[in-house]
Amino acid sequence: MDTTFDHVIVGAGSAGCVLANRLSANGATVAVIEAGGRDRHPYIHIPAGYARILNHARLTWGFRTEPDAATGNRALDYPRGRVWGGSSSINGLGHVRGHPSDYDLWAQKGCTGWGWDDLLPYFMRHESFAGGGEGRGTTGPQPIEHLAERPELLDHFARATEAIGLPVNEDMNGPRREGFATFQQTRRGQRRISAARAYLVPALSRPNLAVIDNALALRIVVEGGRATGVAIRRGGQEQVIRARFGVVLSAGAIGSPHLLMLSGIGPARHVAQHGIAPVLDAPGIGGNLQDHYIVRLNYRLTDHRWSANRRIVWPRLGLEVLRWITRGKGVLTWSPGMMSLFARTQDGLEAPDIQINGGPISWQDGRIGVPEAEPGFTLGVWQCRPHSRGSVTLKSPRPEDAPAIAPRFLTERADEDCVVRGIRLARRWMGAEPLRGIVAHELRPGPQAGTDEALLAFAKATGGTVYHPCCTVRMGGDAAAPLDARLRLRGIEGLRVADASVFPDIPVCNINATVLSVAEKAADLIAEDVRG
């Protein structure tokens, strides 16, 4: 195998797949290094299969967070994909754009060229949305579709939204974010279309693209202040994959800072404590971790007609499998989020501060994949723009060892207050007149949790991640930002980062659509630099 390429990309997740396609389309030689293998597992391609693979031993990294007193001293599962497509192969398929102000705030922080008007063309470039409409892309590589099956319960949710004074939107990615809308999915027909299926697989016929999978990246090779390659271990053998033009890290908000620190690029004192020779003192790497903290509420419904709980267990599940195979319909096309409500819970906000999503399934003790016997549904409440900041740091100098992931959820008082307001909004929504006779009562946290203190205690004891980690190798105009606005690592030539870690701040919503757009823009930036 040739071990020298124009571009070496670390990670075949959402961003890496985009870059592999776009850079190889221009004739450059490209290598993609991926720790996992091909996306052959059947559950990857069934939309509802997410419930079975979120913590799959082979398809994910098996990460867990560091226990934190603010969230009950629990070690939380922190799924990250380790397979072609990365987390786009195991996620809930939600395709949601951020609020325009998200990206304008990026630009205001010195990220020139990253405002909403700058990024909108990249959102349009990557998507192929069957519904079309103003500002929507219809010819991109990534298929986006409305729900294949719209449960009747969602219509009642929509009417309940209007009853509490909020709007209902036909397109959740249209001009208005606030209000109710059904989710859009990264799906074509009956199947999930991950970034691997949308971008990487179609480019495999190009002789100038190589995917080096089942290969663990050990460190970035830096020579004379320039990144010249990536050391990997594959099949027990170590080798260096060389880069003529540059190395692009697309290993995600956990993997990218981890690999940088393993390479001696990060807080110098910290990496030295683990026996790694510092190459560049970059204190900002691994800090600023942001994520959405979700608190799940469960409700009992009055009749099984409103819930899918019985449809996802045998023998009825057999009928659903048949429906999926023959018609591309039924619960196997569902996502964990079927609908969403964005709302402002305080006056004077420029964007929603709460997102509530969910669908007509309820899980035993909140365990995804184990439905209750009685009819129910689940709502997930999360703060859109948390103030709490966490970190990714080394636990050991061994690349095969997981890093220390400390999201530090609910460590700011403003976040505590916001999550309580979000739960109260969810309760007001579920108590609206259009849901009378459909929603029987609240199961979790239940009517006994009536005070703000009780609701906060419930949130701290039961909540978890929505799987949206980002911002750990941020770009910015200030010298403390590890990356400049062209995604170049300050202090090392030939090294870029392009994934969710580059966000200065988290968008108000699910992040995969933003990652695809960042990668599309990154491909343009790299091409511009190649042309000089």
Question: Would you mind describing this structure in some detail?
Answer:
It is a single chain. The protein has 532 residues and is an alpha/beta fold. The protein has 2 domains: 1-55 and 80-114 and 186-288 and 469-532, FAD/NAD(P)-binding domain, CATH 3.50.50; 148-182 and 293-383 and 408-468, Cholesterol Oxidase, domain 2. The chain has 13 helices and 23 strands. The strands form 6 sheets. Strands 1, 2, 9, 10, 11, 12 and 23 form a 7-stranded mixed β-sheet that branches. Strands 5, 15, 16, 17, 18, 21 and 22 form a 7-stranded antiparallel β-sheet that branches. Helix 1 (14-25) runs parallel beside helix 7 (195-203), helix 5 (116-126) packs across helix 13 (512-531) and helix 11 crosses helix 12. The protein is globular. The two termini are 30 Å apart. The model has no long low-confidence stretch (mean pLDDT 97). FAD binds at residue 83. InterPro entries: FAD/NAD-bd_sf (IPR036188), GMC_OxRdtase (IPR012132), GMC_OxRdtase_N (IPR000172), GMC_OxRtase_C (IPR007867). One of its GO terms (molecular function) is flavin adenine dinucleotide binding. Residues 252-266 form the Glucose-methanol-choline oxidoreductase N-terminal domain. Keywords: FAD, Flavoprotein.
What brief labels describe this structure?
globular; seven-stranded antiparallel β-sheet; alpha/beta; FAD/NAD(P)-binding domain; FAD; oxidoreductase activity, acting on CH-OH group of donors; Choline dehydrogenase; seven-stranded mixed β-sheet; 532 residues; 2 domains; FAD/NAD-bd_sf; Cholesterol Oxidase, domain 2
